Amino acid sequence: MRKLALSEEILNSIEKPARYVGGELNTVMKDPATVDLRFAFCFPDVYEIGMGNLGLQILYDQFNRRPDVWCERLYSPWPDLDKIMREKKIPLFALESQDPVKDFDFLGITLQYEMCYSNVLQVLDLSGIPLYAAERTAADPIVIGGGPCTYNPEPVAAFFDLIYIGEGEVVYDALFDLYIRMKKAGASRESFLHEASKLEGIYVPSLYEPRYHEDGTLAAFEPRFDDVPKRVRRVIVREMDRQPYPTSPIVPYLRPFQDRVTLEIMRGCIRGCRFCQAGMVYRPVRERSLAELKEIAVAALKASGYDEISLSSLSSSDYSHLAGLVTYLMDECEARHVNISLPSLRIDNFSLDVMSRVQDIKKSSLTFAAEAGTQRLRDVINKGLTEEDIMRGAKEAFHGGWTKVKFYFMLGLPTETEEDRKGIPELCERVSELFYEEIPKEERKGKIQITASSSFFVPKPFTPFEWAVMETKEEYLARAHFVKDTFRAQKNNRAMHYEYHDADVTVLEGVFARGDRRVAPVIRRAYELGCLFDAWSEQFNDDKWQQAFRDCGVDPDFYTLRERPEEELFPWDFIDIGVTKRFLRREWDRAMEGVVTPNCLEQCSGCGAGSYGCGICPTNRNPQEQAARGMRGAAGKKAPPDSEQTAAAEDVAGEVTT
Amino acid sequence: MIIRVRFGKEGALRFIGHLDVLRTFQKIFRRAEIPMVYSQGFSPHPIMSFALPLGLGLSSEGEYLDAEIEDGMTTAEILSRLRAATSDELPVYAVRMLPEKAGNAMASVGRAAYRLEIPAEYAPAIAAAAEMLLAESSHIISKKTKTQTVSFDLRPCIYELTCRSQALFMTLAAGSKANVKPELVWEELSRGAALAEGAKPLSIRRLDLMTEDGTSLGDIGE
User: Fold this and answer.
1) In the prediction, which pLDDT does A645 show?
2) Which of A16, A28, A307, A361 to mutate to test the interface with B (most CBs of B within 10 A)?
3) Using a CB-CB distance cutoff of 8 angstroms, which residues of chain A are in contact with residue B87?
4) Which of A18, A217, A576, B138 could form a disulfide with A233 if both were Cys (CB 3.0 to 4.6 A apart)?
């Protein structure tokens, strides 16, 4: 039997000891003596959140396919265990072997949201690893970061030896080969990091030097050595079908937030919403084939025993073979008593029909991610959802028996006016009136219930809104209160419920999203002051964060309230994601004019992602993928107008030479 | 048909709660491709029940669950499929088909057998305390519940209590009529042996569950 790192006494005294014992179905056990490299993969939040992460499952599977590598997992100890580990000086350990993280070759930390940054420091601290990469020695693991937040890694760059930019499947093999070779040759930590910087997608923060103007803006960001690349290019999987899928996912005993098989049907999104980072940084759209998805789904259900499967993508309705896939899954799942969950579907006849067959209409609600209250503002953000779409979808849904409708909105979007804020309750009012108009009294199965929730918009790097100015916390709250009051004034206000997110967290997220290296000491100070699990509202303490900013002499307003000029050099500009800054600026200008941009299927806008020459881009020369694309109709058939074509060609060429 | 599965809990599984183990077994049955019978209604669930929950931290080699499955598989085949689908720390030992009239596992439980590993220095005193307790005709103790304190006689709830070197074996009343936890008997013995406050056994392991007349739940059916 495995030895556990925590004593019986401790395990019996903490909340949910199952978080820390490992041993779940499909975990991989190896003999450490037979491997050359031990990798501790950390999701810096509590076990039940982290277990559902698909990226972790993909890389766990991929790394462990190598006989010379053993990848294990760890999550953030909850404050109850955190306290005990500090008191008793118990080093943080990985779940499988229960060995201390400090003894591993690599500690990989996935950065899924900015509010986990204090937890990153907790993991390093409890592991006994110096917080700043500069203070580490040969005795410490190489600390590597990855995940969505790395599209601006600068606020946390000082805590990492390496940062992986792009999709994890691509470069880890080469990185591991390099590490094993250099470790066997007795090379130093410094020389390994230096060599690693030459791999595509690998960013070594210590090898770059920022310089600032007197006004605090970035003047230059350059490598400290000639042989270190000036820019770090995002790496991506070119053909999804060639990439193995974790068909034997780890099945936790403790119920996780995502208690199901996750089936990733495609990467990227054709839509180009201007606020959305995922829509830009995962371009171009790359699909898995229907045949392969069928195989993966059945294998994963069988190996895991899960009773639910969920489709995962940024916009499942845009998957070319959705109908075929869903029909197949419905047949398979019925026989196996498995439920299907279909998030991020556009509401139309097809999706309503499917949903009525896979879920209980009375209990489920329909979700519209309207994002803005008026058509004008939806055009500004390029949200390709019109009021007509919403009304038509709602009408069909009401006739189908649904009575619960959810709306997601954002407040604080660029160009937003009072009219747009008023538009949120007014849109909900029109939808509720539609219910009473459409459904005769005797046919109503319950009352209409509308839930509207709004978050405050945080401008993200590599989006057309990366130049946008944020608002103060007070202004955000004033706007939310105005919306709430306007809801109260609606005729059907009793059928509507409005809630809004926290404004403190928004401002902090804004600082981290577009921050630079000078933010790192603030994160460290906040951690010292006791900040931890900031993503949990009951744990979040804004006063401590404000104190940390004061203690470090860093002004958060510099990052959130300052107007950024067009030509400003951003801290994340050294990353090349394919999509060009020129395209993003063009999109910003179009947003200011309220002009929408067609999606990738309707017309190529020359964003720059074509430089990867894969997926749905016209630059993809793979005949098989081209054929798949041809089935979708629109793509590639409509020639882009001359000006756009030129722009597209320029952008692609520009990328090739950098 | 209804089958009874005997299984154990080792290592990490000792810290997995009752409901999580139940959900895990549903997954193991699906992994094993053993067709379960589902309840009716919009969200049907497999028909499966446990004999008696095991306290967190305890290991066991005598846990039971009853499950209704579609006819057509032999118990030997079910056993080998479950073994292939489970983990080392949740071992499956035996599968039997229950006769029509057999009560379900939960209703059948009357006794539970445990083995407590104890530190060598405690053994003589505990052995003596055990003999003393067995010699009593009644042993009234008061048990605090959430709302009140209830007195009850522990003695008739003890069917077996022997100390052999560093192992303390006990068979206690269990189930819906009377349910005595091994920790409670340990506390009584440790008081009788005048051990230091908070003295704990090294480990507690459930060995088996029996009916009121002492038949192992694993001996019912074929």
Assistant:
1) 40
2) A307
3) 23-25
4) A576
Over residues B193-219, the mean pLDDT reads 93
CATH architecture of B111-210: 2-Layer Sandwich (3.30)
Measured in whole angstroms, how far is the alpha carbon of residue A587 from the centre of its chain? 22
The pLDDT tens digits of the residues spanning B52-109 come to 999 999 999 999 999 999 999 999 999 999 999 999 999 999 999 998 888 888 999 9
Q: Please, what's the largest Cα pairwise distance for chain A?
A: 81
Comparing B2-108 with B111-210, is the CATH topology the same? yes
User: Among the CATH numbers 3.20.20.370, 3.40.50.280, 3.90.550.10, 1.10.3720.10, which is that of A8-233?
Assistant: 3.40.50.280
Summarize pLDDT for A201-256 with one digit per residue, the tens: 999 999 999 999 999 999 999 999 999 999 999 999 999 998 999 999 999 999 88
Q: At A146, is the secondary structure helix, strand, or coil?
A: strand
- Cα–Cα distance measured from residue A73 to residue A263, given in angstroms and rounded to the nearest whole number: 21
Question: What's the fold here for domain B2-108?
Answer: Alpha-Beta Plaits (3.30.70)
Q: Which residue has the tokens 């299984």?
A: B7
- What are the structure tokens assigned to B175, written together? 């189930």
Q: For position A346, what pLDDT does the model report? A: 83
Contact B49, B105 (CB under 8 A): yes
Q: Do B23 and A301 touch (CB under 8 A)?
A: no
**CB atoms B87 and A25 under 8 Å:** yes
SS3 A291: helix
Number of H helices, E strands in chain B: 5, 10
* Own/partner long-range contacts of A192-199 (Cβ < 8 Å, ≥24 apart): A192/A142, A193/A142, A193/A161, A193/A162, A194/A225, A194/A227, A194/A228, A196/A162, A197/A223, A197/A228, A197/A229, A198/A227, A198/A228, A198/A229, A199/A171, A199/A174, A199/A175
Amino acid at B195: L
- Residue boundaries of the structural domains of chain B: 2-108, 111-210
Q: What is the enclosing helix (H) or strand (E) of A645?
A: helix A642-657
Domain boundaries, chain A: 8-233, 580-657
Name which of B10, B21, B28, B31 to mutate to probe chain A: the one with the most chain A Cβ atoms within 10 A of its Cβ: B31
pLDDT at B128: 95
∠ CA A418-A385-A260 to the nearest 5 degrees? 110
Percentage above 70 pLDDT, chain A? 94
Q: Which of the pair, B116 or A444, is modelled with greater confidence?
A: B116
Name the average pLDDT for chain A: 92
Please check the confidence at residue A646 and state whether its pLDDT lies above 70. Answer: no
